[in-house]
Design brief:
Layout lengths: L1 H32 L1 H22 L1 H4 L3 H4 L9 H26 L9 H7 L3 H13 L6 H41 L4 H28 L8 H20 L10 H20 L9 H7 L3 H24 L9 H9 L6 H14 L4 H17 L7 H20 L15 H27 L8
Helix pairs in contact: 1-2, 2-5, 2-13, 2-17, 5-7, 5-8, 5-17, 8-9, 8-11, 8-17, 8-18, 9-10, 9-11, 10-11, 10-18, 11-18, 13-17, 15-16
Length: 451
């Protein structure tokens, strides 16, 4: 009986050890193959910590003397402490991703040591470094943190502009691909037409919803909300008609419809950021009566969308990279990075020197494949990827603090008049950028705009 119990205990320990060993190796392999997902998880973890610290930072900060010295002369509120916490965690992530971007600058091939060690390897060390970077800003004086808060406003604007450019390029590429496929099969064109109609129908549906929720009956004229909704509709109509003019050489209704749908979404996002006690924010009045779980789910969806946007923007580097002509020509023409004749000659020499031949050939073949793999270009620009996450860290600070508004409520996310006008400006910048893509080739026919 004792022997059976002992053997069972040993078997259980061995099973536990094997399970831990398997999980460790699988997780390491996954992180090596999906480094972007791992960095996205770190970024999301920082967002969650910022969210928690925003609402519960006061007991911790009251024990930090250099932070409390900045509160002399006024009685700091819980919201002030929360803003300080969000800025410091955001700053830590900005420094972490910014340093990673600088360290990986110029990495072009998969075999480079910086890419293998910094981007894909040593995750335990990087996790420790990430924790240290998040803790470091809590040692900084308040003046440095406040200066970062102002810099984050500009960095957040760059992040939003990056999102707009990627969206416009995505819709143009989507349209061009389906039109090209339509030359072989007309069903692609019918699908493109159906999506275009669906997007314009979505624009009209969102417009009706906006008038219903943000000009509620009995709330007065709500002239501001009516103006913002009407101006957004006129902007969508304007560039949609512009895309049909002869001067718009690359004009098409499908990119116009998707851009219009995104602009109406930005209009909705701006209006729902109005203060909850504003009489014309009918949706805000309904959300005030919503359950706590509903508010938490809505905030999580918003934060996850930011993580996804940063991930996709960081991975889409072809729009922003200005490579030299020689490198571009090599990639475009498919020029091999290793001379095939030299490899073949090396193989022949090795084969003639080896008596059996088979073992040498197999080893040389594996070495050749490894060498070719080492000189294969990276699938995305590592430095640009981390730069986008650094800018996204700034954007999260603005999102959680209402663009620096101390009066941000505990159960609110991105609410306040500053948020309203930032999103409204983003909406109009998107419309102007898309209109520019339509008229620029006609205004400057000698230039290649890449679309």
């Amino acid at each position: 009986m004792f022997v059976a119990t002992y053997l069972g205990s040993c078997a259980a320990n061995m099973a536990g050890y094997c399970a831990c060993w398997t999980c460790t190796n699988v997780s390491q392999a996954c992180m090596k193959r999906s480094a972007r997902v791992a960095y996205s998880f770190l970024f999301f973890l920082a967002i969650v910590i910022s969210w928690i610290m925003r609402d519960f930072a006061r007991p911790l900060f009251e024990k930090i003397p250099w932070i409390m010295r900045a509160a002399t002369g006024f009685e700091p509120s819980d919201k002030w402490f929360g803003q300080q916490a969000v800025y410091r965690i955001s700053m830590g992530n900005f420094l972490f991703f910014g340093c990673m971007s600088l360290a990986l600058l110029g990495v072009k091939y998969k075999g480079e040591k910086r890419g293998q060690l910094l981007q894909h390897g040593h995750w335990v060390i990087k996790l420790v470094v990430w924790v240290l970077f998040n803790a470091l800003p809590f040692l900084f004086p308040n003046g440095v943190v406040q200066a970062y808060g102002w810099a984050a406003r500009f960095g957040s604007g760059l992040f939003l502009i990056t999102q707009m450019i990627i969206l416009l390029d995505f819709t143009q590429s989507w349209n061009a691909a389906w039109v090209a496929n339509g030359e072989q099969d007309e069903r692609w064109l019918y699908g493109l037409l159906a999506l275009t109609v669906a997007c314009f129908a979505g624009v009209l549906g969102i417009s009706g919803m906006l008038f219903y929720f943000f000009k509620p009956s009995g709330a007065g004229s709500c002239s501001l909300n009516v103006f913002l909704i009407t101006a957004s509709l006129l902007l969508c109509i304007g560039f949609s008609m512009l895309s049909l003019l002869p001067m718009a050489r690359n004009g098409s209704l499908f990119p116009s419809s998707t851009t219009a749908l995104y602009i109406m979404y930005l209009c909705y996002s701006a209006l729902q950021s109005e203060p909850r006690d504003y009489e014309c924010n009918g949706l805000g009045h309904r959300l005030n009566a919503a359950s706590g779980s509903t508010l938490v789910i809505g905030m999580l969806v918003t934060l996850l969308s930011v993580v996804y946007s940063a991930l996709r923007a960081g991975s889409n580097t072809s729009l922003f990279m200005l490579d030299d002509d020689d490198a571009s020509d090599d990639v475009a023409m498919g020029t091999p990075l290793i001379d095939a004749e030299a490899v073949a000659g090396a193989n022949t020499t090795a084969d003639s020197a080896a008596a059996p031949g088979q073992v040498s050939a197999s080893r040389d073949g594996a070495a050749d494949k490894a060498a070719i793999q080492d000189f294969a270009p990276v699938s995305y620009n590592y430095a640009f990827f981390h730069l986008i996450f650094a800018l996204a860290s700034m954007y999260i600070a603005m999102l959680l603090t209402g663009w620096g508004a101390v009066e941000q409520e505990r159960d609110r996310l991105d609410v306040g008049w500053t948020s309203v006008w930032v999103k409204t400006a983003a909406e109009w910048v998107t419309g102007v950028l898309y209109s520019w893509t339509l008229i620029a080739p006609a205004l400057f026919p000698d230039r290649d705009f890449g679309f």
